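> forwarded from #structure-qc
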């Protein structure tokens, strides 16, 4: 008998592709055949990054692609938002793909799993009457709860009907929930006001669709966010989804990983290295880049710093930097982050607080220094610093810069206070227990698997 066939559709961005790939690998291990649908643009990057090409022809997670509607690199860099292009063309492309697969021998799609941000894909599932539909949320439940609360925010006069922020104020939906400044709402802290309105509409549409699915699962845990899950019981935790799945291949990574840094870490004492990484999209201006470089030098501790080539295009390191730092610091363009965070030499994680990075740090009991830029990163920072108390944030100076002195002081504060590490270790234990036999995330995942098979 052929295996039940799932089609999985991530939102086309690194922080979305990787966790859905982990989820898909987990489902494949449980006996499903999974067709994983990237945009052509993302697919090309993944293929370039994969060292073992046979992965693409892997029996149970099969990588395929469809166009996203942006024709050229110029258009990709231009004003038309990817989310607009996606909404215009991808539903038809997906429909055609599913119809083609359904005609193949033993390949009929029985379940569609789409990123919650792909409301258009959930609409295709409804139209094609796919029997089982799951929305997957790769970020904190609290972020989704905030999206669900948009009508309340409008009613309370915090935002306008089009998402425009009317009042700058701190918002906390309930005690023990993260705090967020209204001007940092996910749609409100990116681009100009017309971009923000498009994003807001996009989010309203996806949130509406997410309410219609059979299952809405989230890469988080009850233990980390009890209040958020209590506020929206429809959202179910199945995280942390990481695990050993990424060790054997780099499927899902958009850049080739430089694993030589693991040998470098092997030579460092336990709990000594500052790991610095800002995810897949954040970029620096020259002043901020150089302040960070000088702070790491000043800290006089070993550091491993991920400097993506596009993070620092044409920004020079401070004069004589590499010579002064010597073997105390290593810069790589893309690290095997999960392996790095699991390495015993890591003392702390200076992070932009993307949710995947947050889950990966938490799952390894690593304390954080928080440097959020946009989207859900402010909510995640509040969880880390205010709710779980496993990290510290930075203060900017009057010119909006985080200075080398500030960074150095916070490094010393965090590493000088053993309570941060103790709380981080406790949080790790909770996160690991929930995915073991009898744990909450484990039970939910098992139920989901049974339901898809039924
Ligand atoms: C984006 C948003 O920034 C984030 O806030 C949201 O929650 C998801 O989408 P991104 O910026 O890429 O994500 O950050 P993050 O969520 O942390 O995901 C980055 C992923 O890339 C992580 O899984 C991390 O392990 C991986 N990574 C990062 C590497 O494998 N190597 C690196 O060198 C850096």
């Amino acid at each position: 008998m052929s295996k039940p066939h799932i089609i999985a559709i991530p939102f086309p961005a690194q922080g979305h592709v990787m966790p859905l790939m982990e989820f898909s690998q987990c489902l494949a291990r449980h006996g499903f055949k999974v067709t994983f649908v990237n945009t052509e643009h993302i697919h090309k990057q993944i293929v370039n990054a994969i060292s073992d090409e046979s992965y693409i022809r892997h029996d149970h997670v099969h990588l395929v692609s469809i166009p996203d509607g942006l024709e050229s690199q110029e258009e990709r860099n231009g004003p038309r938002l990817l989310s607009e292009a996606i909404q215009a063309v991808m539903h038809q492309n997906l429909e055609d793909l599913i119809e083609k697969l359904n005609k193949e021998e033993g390949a009929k799609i029985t379940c569609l799993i789409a990123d919650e941000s792909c409301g258009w894909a959930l609409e295709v599932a409804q139209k094609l009457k796919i029997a089982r539909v799951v929305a997957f949320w790769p970020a904190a439940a609290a972020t989704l709860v905030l999206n669900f609360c948009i009508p309340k925010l409008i009613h309370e006069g915090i935002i306008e009907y089009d998402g425009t922020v009317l009042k700058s104020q701190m918002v906390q939906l309930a005690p023990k929930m993260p705090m967020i400044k209204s001007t940092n709402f996910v749609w409100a802290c990116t681009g100009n006001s017309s971009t923000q309105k498009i994003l807001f509409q996009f989010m309203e549409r996806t949130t509406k669709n997410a309410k219609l699915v059979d299952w809405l699962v989230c890469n988080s845990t009850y233990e980390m966010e009890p209040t958020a899950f209590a506020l929206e019981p429809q959202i179910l935790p199945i995280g942390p989804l990481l695990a050993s799945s990424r060790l054997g291949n780099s499927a899902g990574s958009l850049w080739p990983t430089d694993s030589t840094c693991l040998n470098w870490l092997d030579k460092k004492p336990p709990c000594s290295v500052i790991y610095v990484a800002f995810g897949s999209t954040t970029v620096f201006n020259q002043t901020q880049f150089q302040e960070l470089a000088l702070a790491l030098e000043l800290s006089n501790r070993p550091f491993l710093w991920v400097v993506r080539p596009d993070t620092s295009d044409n920004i020079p390191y401070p004069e004589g930097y590499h010579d002064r730092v010597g073997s105390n610091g290593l810069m790589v363009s893309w690290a095997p982050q999960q392996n790095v965070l699991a390495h015993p030499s890591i003392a702390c994680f200076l992070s932009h607080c993307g949710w995947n990075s947050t889950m990966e740090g938490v799952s390894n009991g690593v304390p954080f220094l928080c440097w959020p830029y946009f989207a859900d990163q402010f909510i995640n920072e509040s969880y880390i610093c205010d709710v779980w108390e496993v990290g510290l944030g930075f203060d900017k100076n009057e010119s909006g810069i985080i200075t080398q002195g500030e960074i150095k002081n916070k490094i010393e504060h965090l590493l000088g206070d053993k309570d941060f590490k103790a709380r981080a270790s406790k949080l790790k234990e909770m996160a690991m227990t929930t995915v073991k036999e009898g744990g909450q995330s484990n039970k939910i995942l098992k139920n989901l698997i049974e339901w898809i098979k039924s």
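QC bot note: Residues 13-16, 18, 139, 253, 277, 279-281, 306, 334-335, 337-338, 354-357, 360, 375-377 surround uridine-5'-diphosphate-xylopyranose (CB under 6 Å). The radius of gyration is 22 Å.
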